[in-house]
Write a structure and sequence with these properties.
The protein is an alpha+beta fold. The chain has one domain: Umud Fragment, subunit A (Ribbon), CATH 2.10.109.10. It is 17% helix and 23% strand. The protein has two helices and seven strands. Strands 1-2-7-3-4-5-6 form a seven-stranded antiparallel β-sheet. The chain is elongated. Its EC number is 3.4.21.89. Its main location: membrane.
């Protein structure tokens, strides 16, 4: 006859391992970002926490016009890298580090692959107005245009530079 501890061991492993595996998988799929700055007001205000669904490396599915994304910020080729205008402190990484410090921005998608580039977007896309957005490229803007550094200044955002899609705002802790 086996001691009862040996018979319970497999059940204990499953009971502890299953929730742990679930948490690890969720962390790979989702990230919580704290917004700082005025570029996405009024939809997202400084201090808002948002849940972001990371995109798979194999495809950029789930990015829709009107949706909000977190993406790598790339300065225009003739400008030195720096923090985007209107995002002082930037959105924050899960570690609390400002996203802008690593070149991340939170913006709304105004056009995706195949959509016409909107008119009047500023210097970076003036020549592209009316033409279809190229494959794997997106046009993004902040909701508060006066305080946003976006596709009007830097041009298209590449699909591979998009970390994920904002799912929803989380309740404030205070």
């Amino acid at each position: 006859m086996q001691p009862s501890g040996r018979r319970l061991f497999p059940f204990a492993v499953v009971a502890v391992g299953t929730p742990l595996l679930g948490v690890l998988l969720a962390r790979r799929r989702f990230v919580v970002i704290t917004v700082a700055g005025a570029s996405m007001e009024p939809a997202y205000r400084s201090g808002d926490r948002v849940l972001v669904r990371r995109l798979s490396r194999s495809g950029r599915t789930g990015i829709e016009r009107g949706g909000v994304v977190v993406a790598t910020w790339r300065p225009p080729s003739d400008d030195p890298p720096g923090e985007p205008a209107g995002t002082h402190g930037g959105p924050r990484r899960p570690t609390g580090e400002p996203l802008g410090a690593r070149g991340w921005v939170i913006k709304r998608v105004v056009a995706g692959p195949g959509d016409p580039v909107p008119e009047g977007l500023g210097p970076a896309l003036t020549a592209e107005a009316g033409k279809p957005v190229p494959r794997e490229r997106f046009v993004v803007m902040g909701d508060n245009a006066a305080h946003s550094h976006d596709s009007r200044h830097t041009g298209y955002v590449e699909g591979g530079d998009i970390l994920g899609v904002v799912i929803r705002r989380l309740e404030r802790r205070w």
